[in-house]
Specification:
The protein has 606 residues and is α/β, with parallel strands linked by helices. 55% of the residues are buried. The structure holds fructose -6-phosphate.
Length: 606
């Protein structure tokens, strides 16, 4: 998705903007551009393709200490140089970068057209540049406010005006924007990763908020021109965390990081003595936790699948009815929001528009919602009534891996809290805590099996289509396994409940359709194994992901064995080899693993 950077200070802006844009590349984009304001007036450069192509096209001496930059993911109009941002006014005085979608752009465009304005792109953003240039307000802030009162939709914008070279004016509504406070310099970005090299002192803008940013100060204000006093917060991200650290791909780096990041996540959160979890950020005491009669989990894509794992943990441990629903559908079905339901939003980025809208819908209807979110200070984290930060560290690969295992663990902690104020005994709580403590070491063990998994993946990479099957606790694992594989390898993969095979999908089983079956050592093992015979009998190739001691029966069937934990926690571990399977299948097929086609890391539009 689109990315914004901005700089004003005492250094040359161009290299800082280019470096910031390259940090945003992981989000997905198809063109990029910058505008720099120096003694020669505003200069705008745009390119289709990579940030490095843009960089190569810049003049050697591009002087100017204020500028804005953008990576674009085409929405209005194809990926062309004309449609790339910054977009400018006719006279070139105003440059604008914009994330989001302006809903009434077509109407505004018609009106401007009728007034003789010449458009040079198909973008909705260009409308903003022309409107600002035509505003009669005496200040840039006034002109931006003027325009914001006329546009509807979602946006994060940064505006550069030749007449006001001492400032950038930025605004946010439904799309993230962050200010970075430096020493006699200020930064603007849509994503923390573009800032962390320069500063850890940041200000998150809220929806409906604007800011004037000069080299030495910032002022935030509302659309009613009321000052909104904001104090910078210090973020806890190491610049090294957002680099490749010698790995070829972020996806593999992030898979291998899991033992360390999970250990960090658990630190201080396990209460051995009382067999429960310490989640102060939930802002819920025992009485409130006890009061909820239902839990509803909202997330998208892989976060939704882990939400299904979480719902199972909550039902099993706390015996509270729980389910997960795709956040993207939630608000469109006029959901019944119940006061005694605990709503849980789950999101790595904390910026997924569909999930953020679901949070707003719950709040609008008076519901109570907490977040399981990775990115500190992100929109969803701030909008929820409380929450649990996942502390997975920055996740750069588009395909989510470590954040998902962290979500699984976050749900286990939440389930413990809900369960221990109900009927789960201290001993059972302690059993889960011991299980949680074993997870980092057990993941280490799984990771040592990488060469074997890579071999299996290379074998599967030749298939046109695959099934992933699992039952009950294993089904969300199968769904996530299929999702990961299709995202990075582009192989068609579908997940089914193993029990559902005979009700239809079995018709497709043949020698050329492999099935990856999740067969944990639990109360359903025998039934699972029996169902797999239906596949074997039809000559369908099988790969089994299982626990030690489960007798698959046929030594020719490749098995990936995962250490056994408590049955409630097993799904978290069963997911890990499927991450490696997807990674190695994509590697065998030679795909761009960290930036799969058509996908973006942070889906900030609906
Ligand atoms: C899968 C994947 C997506 C995300 C989904 C939600 O690898 O990354 O399916 O899980 O877009 O994103 P977040 O968790 O940022 O809300």
């Amino acid at each position: 998705m689109c990315g914004i950077v901005g700089y004003i200070g005492n250094q040359n802006a161009a290299p800082i903007l280019i470096e910031g844009l390259s940090r945003l590349e992981y989000r997905g984009y198809d063109s990029a551009g910058i505008a720099v304001l120096g003694s020669r007036g505003p200069q705008v450069f745009r390119r289709v393709g990579r940030v490095r192509d843009l960089d190569a096209s810049l003049p050697r001496r591009l002087a100017g200490k204020v500028g804005i930059g953008h990576t674009r993911w085409a929405t209005h109009g194809p990926a062309t140089e004309e449609n790339a941002h910054p977009q400018t006014s006719e006279d070139g005085r105003i440059s604008v970068v914009h994330n989001g979608i302006i809903d009434n752009a077509a109407t505004l465009r018609e009106r401007l057209d009728a007034k003789g304005v010449k458009f040079s792109s198909e973008t909705d953003t260009e409308v903003i540049a022309h409107l600002i240039a035509r505003s009669e307000a005496p200040t840039l802030e006034g002109a931006v406010l003027d325009v914001l009162s006329r546009i509807t939709g979602t946006y994060a914008i940064a505006v550069l005006d030749e007449r006001h070279p001492d400032r950038l004016v930025v605004a946010r509504n439904g799309s993230p924007l962050i200010l970075g406070v430096g020493d006699h310099e200020m930064f603007v970005a849509s994503d923390l990763s573009a800032l962390v090299r320069h500063t850890t002192s940041v200000v998150h803008l809220d929806d409906g908020e604007l800011a004037t940013v000069t080299a030495t100060e910032f002022r935030t204000f509302s659309k009613d021109e009321e000052n909104t006093a904001k104090i910078p917060t210090t973020i806890d991200i190491d610049f090294e965390d957002v680099g490749l650290a010698g790995y070829r791909h972020y996806m593999r780096k992030e898979i291998l990081e899991q033992p360390t990041t999970i250990e960090r996540m658990l630190r201080g959160r396990l209460d051995e003595r009382f067999g429960t979890a310490r989640l102060d950020g939930l802002n819920l005491g025992p009485r409130e936790l006890r009061w909820f009669r239902r839990v509803k989990i909202l997330g998208c894509g892989s976060a939704y699948y882990v939400g299904q794992m979480g719902a199972a943990m909550i039902e099993e441990l706390a015996r509270v009815p729980a389910d997960a629903e795709p956040a993207s559908e939630f608000r469109y079905r006029n959901p019944i929001v119940e006061p005694d339901t605990l709503y849980v939003a789950v999101s790595q980025s904390g910026e997924t528009a569909d999930t953020a809208f679901a949070v707003q819908e719950v709040k609008r209807k008076g519901g109570q919602i907490v977040g399981l979110v990775n990115v500190v200070g992100s929109t969803i984290a701030r909008e929820c009534d409380g929450g649990v930060y996942l502390h997975a560290g920055p996740e750069v690969a588009v395909a989510s891996t470590k954040a998902l295992t962290h979500m699984g663990i976050g749900f286990a902690l939440l389930a413990l809290c809900l369960a221990r104020v109900r009927d789960l005994s201290i001993a059972d709580g302690q059993r889960i805590i011991t299980g949680l403590r074993s997870i980092p070491g057990q993941i280490e063990e799984i990771l040592t099996g990488e060469p074997g998994i890579a071999k299996i993946a290379a074998g599967l990479a030749g298939a046109q289509s695959l099934f992933f099957v699992g039952r009950v606790r294993g089904f969300p694992v199968a769904r996530e396994g299929a999702q990961k594989l299709k995202e990075v390898s582009y192989l068609h993969a579908e997940a089914y409940q193993t029990s559902e095979l005979k009700h239809g999908p079995l018709a497709l089983i043949c020698e050329s359709l492999p099935t990856v079956a999740i067969v944990p050592d639990d109360e359903l093992t025998d039934r699972n194994l029996a169902a797999l015979q239906q596949i074997v009998a039809r000559k369908g190739p099988l790969v089994v992901v299982t626990h030690p001691g489960v007798a698959i029966g046929d030594p020719a069937v490749p098995a990936i064995t995962v250490p056994k934990n408590e049955r409630e926690l097993d799904p978290i571990l069963l997911t890990v080899p499927l991450q490696l399977l997807a990674y190695h299948a994509a590697l065998a097929l030679g795909h761009d693993i960290d930036k799969p086609r058509n996908l973006a890391k942070s889906v900030t539009v609906e």
